[in-house]
């Protein structure tokens, strides 16, 4: 099937009644969960996975994609109104969004966020449509060594770009990889680290890890901050209207950041958070009046909001065309694909064009829905933020428990969920980033398989990774992405 | 010797890595397989040992905010432990009493314990939410949740 026919199929899927309905559900739930302080897209996707059981994979994945970009979209609301970003990708939005809210211009800030998110999201879907098929056709020739190198690059990128200490990020990734070695080895049938426990034979389910490390660990933070009254002090919205002059001011950052954000989203390891910060910094640097930033600048809201949404679509490029996630969130998204029996990768476009193109096409509708949800309806939706914390805590725990139980039907996994909740909380306390952990957990199994397949082909010789030009290039990039921050650090120390 | 945080954390990690390595060395190996099941675990174990050593010598570069995050008041630690106990009981009783009953009890008492004082709202949420989820899962999604003592 050619690309044009594929695109047509995609639009047919997206514009069917079922397609529209699931996109709407997805973006609505995503906005809702993304808005909750602390609960980001990872928790949103993980909580929604059990709902998709038994659903047709296309509808389910269209919905899950909606949850993902809906959560990024919704995160801006709590950033602006409460200065409590629901998602790390919207932290930069609060720098200028919250000062605007303090000046009584919360409505305006929300409108700017909604419009720039819409522009960023839509422009990047067009780019996604162009780039994903190209990358798919290149990746189809990749053998196990190239795949191993690609995944290795993804892992090193996320560790070197993580917040804080690179060593801690690496440790987090290695421990995540260790956890995935639990269970029966797929190639030799050896039981590894199961301690004779039948429940561990198949290894731990990724939902146990995702919900434990993210949702439950967040519950712990919510328990500690349960008396935070900021929700009740949320600022009044004020008018949503934007003047022509203001729109003109936004248009520059929106155009630039749509492209920049998309590119950063495609690159492994970067994603929405880094894209939004880079957008904020670059706009501040090139602005005529940089002193306005941080005091309620329109550009300061438009830039990160455009970039984080553009990056979200960008992140779908490697996920759909290579089957390799570049961030923690897309790793959980990959988990959602696998739960539904769909293997994303270079063959997805030809084997399941309805899924490949359906997801991409549905993003156009999703962005329109998000604009509607976030502009006229925002005063009503923002009431969600008034859910009392004690109730919110109990409900998040309930959703996590349902999520894991519905996939495994045994309480052993629930105890494991509790255990990983504790682990996630301790990691937070000691500043070990969790995204490398989940990425390593999801990629670990595939990486080990690709590594061992490569060595089986080469009869045990490691030279196979150097002989294949694609694998070699990717490994060199991985190596450099790792060495550069170290060199920078050393130079800083010497200076 | 263990005067900084990184040093203490690295020791814990080192113990973890050694424990993992001991288990990895007990994995059976088979002849004629170029890469056996123990290769990756052993590699990971040594990698963690190396990283733990790096962390031991790394400077603490924590911001004040990160330090403050660990400063949890005793009362809140108590609350956290209590919530964990609640969740533990929830999981243990889930298959015995059933999803709806256990979840309702959990939501009501957990919210009450965390300081929610609108009892009527709490009660309504605690009953309606689990019921709604139960019906959605068992009737529409065809995923069974433990019925427990309830007849349906």
From TrEMBL, chain B:
Pfam families: TctB
InterPro entries noted in UniProt: DUF1468
Keywords tagged on the record: Membrane, Transmembrane, Transmembrane helix
Phylogenetic classification of the source organism: Bacteria, Bacillati, Bacillota, Bacilli, Bacillales
Transmembrane segments: 40-57, 77-93, 99-116, 123-141
DUF1468 domain span: 12-146
Listed name of the protein: Tripartite tricarboxylate transporter TctB family protein
DNA-binding keyword on record: no
Domain of life: Bacteria
